[in-house]
Amino acid sequence: MKAVFRFCFIAVAATLLNGCSLLEIKLESGIEPLPQEQLNMRVFSRDFSTVFYSQVESAADLIERNTDSIPVKSNTLMWKINAEQNLQHTIFQASPTAAMLDTWVFTEQMVEFFESGAGKNVFGEQQAVAVEASIKLRDQFERTVKSFGAAKFNKNQKFVKEYVASHPIKDMAFARESAFTDWLEFHQISEFDAITTFGTVPEVMSDISDRMAMIAEQMPKILGWKAELYALHSNINADEIQRTLTSISDTSAKFQQLMAQSPEMMQSLAVDMRKELTPLLAQLSADTDDKLKQLSVERQALELMVKNERQALETMVARERAAAAVDLEQISQNAVEVVFQEITKTLKSLILYFVLFLVVVFFAPLGLGVWLGKRMQIKKQTTPKLKAEAATK
Known about the structure:
Organism: Shewanella pneumatophori
Mean pLDDT: 75
Protein name: Chemotaxis protein
Shape: elongated
Number of strands: 0
Keywords: Membrane, Transmembrane, Transmembrane helix
Oligomer: single chain
Order of helices and strands: HHHHHHHHHHHH
Radius of gyration: 45 Å
């Protein structure tokens, strides 16, 4: 009986452990994926960045084309540079909730800056173009944010208005801080509960890929705008640039003319250069071959190290599994012994209660009847004697 019970317990435990594949993955990885709502927030914020860049650049270029003022042109370049750099900082935060909230705050700050804040006159007569573009971006962002819940939207909108009123943008540098910490205090959320996971490995890799793609796309444009801004405020003018280009063109034409007039000299120069460069190229080739050989050796060493690490990891996993199996056997054995001990105690208690039940149900009435019979017999024997004594008296 004991052996059969132990075998059944082990079989049930093994079946449960083998069947719970999701549990095994959970224990092995320890990584929780991002909730679906936060994934939607991340996708929406990334998609909004494309719209933001397009509309800011279009509005700034429109202002620049319709003005001859150097300060206004400078401000259009600073708007594109600083606005897009700040947006990259907001949307690429660790928490999708923080990214979405901070982007919302930034769009509201930009509206306040151009409409009634410190930047209400930075574009002169064309200020309305920047105000209109900022309001359009803010409204478009809010319409999508509202789809995540009307109740949350109203409460968050109240926070955004209050935060922007107390933390306005002060100049075209767009210097600002993240509003996520203040948002946590506003909703009375602990910082330890705000971010519980960064997502699975594929989600983290996808986030890094998005960041690299965004940097690769925006960095050339931002560098070009910074170069334009530098040229706009430097002493270099268009006439000087034109004269320099003309001089370079003239020098090139003279060099070509010299080559046409003296082919023998150019051929001799080419031969001399080939003689001088041949040893250098040979040395460079030899050094390159040595480096490639060294790289091959290092690659083989790396492969060997990875192989050894993998074997060591497999050995460790096998050892841990064997230890777990031994522990499971010991646990099951102890559990069976404890169960049988408890069953024995329970059976003893049941037997004792059963005996007491028999005594109470059967023997107690019988004993009571015998006792009552004896009492009745004694009473019958004493009654005639009492009557005789009473008659004698």
